[in-house]
Every structure is written in C-alpha cells, then in structure tokens.
Amino acid sequence: MTKLQFPKSVFRHICQLSSDKGILFYSTADFLVFYTNIGVKCLRENIVVIAFSIMFNHFHLEAMFETDSEMSSFVNGATSPFAKRYNSHYGLSGPVFRHNFNRSSKYSEKHTRDIVIYIGNNGKEKIPGIRAEDYRWSFLKYLVSTHPFSEEIDYRIASPSLIRLMSIVITKRSKLQSLNYDFFESDEYCHLSEKEKKQLTDFIITTFFFLDKDRLFKLYGSFENLCTAMNAVSGSEHSFSDDRSSEDYRHYYRMIRICIDRGYDVTKQRFSLPGWHFDSNRKVFFWQDDGNSPASCGNLSQDHGSSPTSCGKEISRREFSSLIATFKTEMNVSDYEIAKFFHLL
Asked: Distance between CA atoms of 157 and 32, rounded to whole angstroms?
C-alpha cells in the first residue's frame, strides 16, 4: 500500500476524545502530566506546533507532519505514556483516549489560520464571559509572558520546596522527561501555598513550552492581532465533529470542589456507580437493580463498552442522589454534565 504523503507545509488538525466522552482531566496534575508528555514528544522530534488546547475530555493540536504514519506515530507516542500513568494513578485499566482520533489537513494559509482561531476559542466557548486568551489550557498568554496567571517568583522569599521543585522541572526538561503524578503527590508540592502552586504551574508550562511563536506570529503579525482575531470570530472545522456539546466548564470546577468537600476526591480516585444509568433520550438518570454486582477493578464495563470501569470508593444510590441534588441546587447543572462528570454516558 502506498504511504499517504503530505506536503511539508501542510498543517494537520488533531482532535482526540476520551474513551467514553467522560471527563478526563480533573486536576492540575492531570493537565500538567499530559501537557509535559505532549511537550516532550514535540521537543524531542522537533514537531512544529502552532495551536494546542486541553479541554476536560479531549484535546486539540495543530501541527505539521509529512506523512499520515508520522502523525499517527506521534499521537500514539504522546498519549500512550500518559495513559499508563493516568491508569496507574487512578487504579484503572483500559483505554484512556479513543483509538481513532479526528484529523484534517490544512492546505492553505487561510485554513491554517482558521483552525488556530478554532482551537484557541475552545475554552472561551465553554466558559462564558472570558476572552480566548484567558483560558489557561490554550496556552496563549504564555506566548508573551512567563507567568500570566501568577505573581512573578521572588527568589529571595520563595520557599525551599518551591526552589527544589523548580530544579526538578528544569532537570526533567533538560533530559526531555515528562512529569509524573509522583511529582504532584510529593510532600514538597503538597506543602506549597496556593500562591506558590500557581507560580509553579506557570513555571512548568513555560519550561516545557513548545508552541512555535515565530511561525504563529508570522501568520498574525503580533499577539495582539491574534487575540483580536480570536475574540472576533470562533473559527470553524468542517472536516469532522468534535465534542461541541452545550456545557459550562464552571460547573465542572464547582462539582469537583463539592465532591472533594464531601469526601469524594475525584482528583485522587475514581468512584464506582453500580446500577446507575443515563438515558440520553429522556435526559434522566435511573437505577437498574438487576442483581448484578459491578465489574471488578480493571475489567471493562459492559454498560460503557470500551470505557474503563471506575475503581476505588463506591458511591451508594442514596449518596449519588444526594450529590445530584446538591449540584442542581447550587448551580444550573444539566443531567448531561453530571453524566459526563461521572462517566455515565
């Protein structure tokens, strides 16, 4: 079979969803472990990337590849190490991302620019009231600042823990090694103040930064022009459909906090919901007591096809109903958002 070839100047838009469309990135550690995995792969292989955004259950990337096999190898090589770390951290097994990912080629500068806008606007579309550059995980502000979401680090008063962790980050970057969950579970990280955690997050992103700023600014002239364009139009992708469901990411942030406050720390373990199902047609949850016990940890759920079965603390019918009631009382959360949050789609 003849290998499919692409001109070197062609950019490719890649979008990959979580295996069951459920929430994948619950914590800062989830985002940063994945970000550094992608970053190391791009830096090691000199991949030209001009747009990247991590959403709660998928990611977008616009990068240059010469062949289809090179692109597929990149995606597999970047996501597989993360999947292993993610499953190990949460006590899961099975696929983390869907094996088949969406992709499209951009043969003209206009189409290339349009996808930059489209990817950069993903965060703005999910968080009402913000500008495109205000969504941290589209990494736009890092094009012009080393600490866009935190105070500049004052080394005279920085804690020894922060200095030590920064040193580890620098060493990892110099060796082209990504961060793992142990880094964020260390005593040094846990003892950081919230201010220093924000500073360290900015430092990690800056240290592993891999967007091609020169090439991106050549397309738009300046950062200001790029932001103006992003906030004027949404961009479009007609080649495939990604997760464009109606949802408010502020709800997920609040749901995570409520779960943690009530003893269900979704940033540390997954929760088994045996018997619960979501009817997407009726938009309701229902309890199916069929006498079957939940699948054991590590097995694939019969209800969710290829999605990994949640392990860890089991939530009872009463506890889950109480959580749903709290979510709906404290915010205008939809049943679809709840189903997505708890992997019940």
From this structure: 25
Residue type, 213: K
Best mean pLDDT range from 62-76, 103-117, 156-170, 301-315: 156-170
* The pair of three-digit structure tokens given for residue 123, joined into one six-digit string: 């965060």
Q: Which residues, in sequence order, are CB contacts of 193 under 8 Å at separation 6+?
A: 159
Q: 324: which 2 tokens?
A: 């749903």
Q: pTM, whole model, 2 decimals?
A: 0.87
The 3-class secondary structure across 90-133, one letter per residue, is HCCCCCCECCCCEEEEECCHHHHHHHHHHHHCHHHHHCCCCCHH
Q: In angstroms, rounded to a whole number, what is the distance separating the alpha carbons of residues 41 and 31?
A: 16
- How far the first Cα of the chain sits from its last, in Å, is 38
Cα 327 vs. chain centroid, distance in angstroms? 22
The two three-digit tokens of residue 122, written as one number: 């993903």
Question: In CATH, which of 3.50.50.60, 3.30.70.1290, 3.30.1360.120, 3.40.50.300 is domain 11-232?
Answer: 3.30.70.1290
Cα–Cα distances in angstroms (integers) from residue 99 to residues 74, 87, 165, 265, in the given order = 13, 16, 34, 28
The span from the CA of 276 to the CA of 274, in Å, is: 6
* 175 vs 134: CA distance, rounded Å: 31
pLDDT at residue 124 in the model: 93
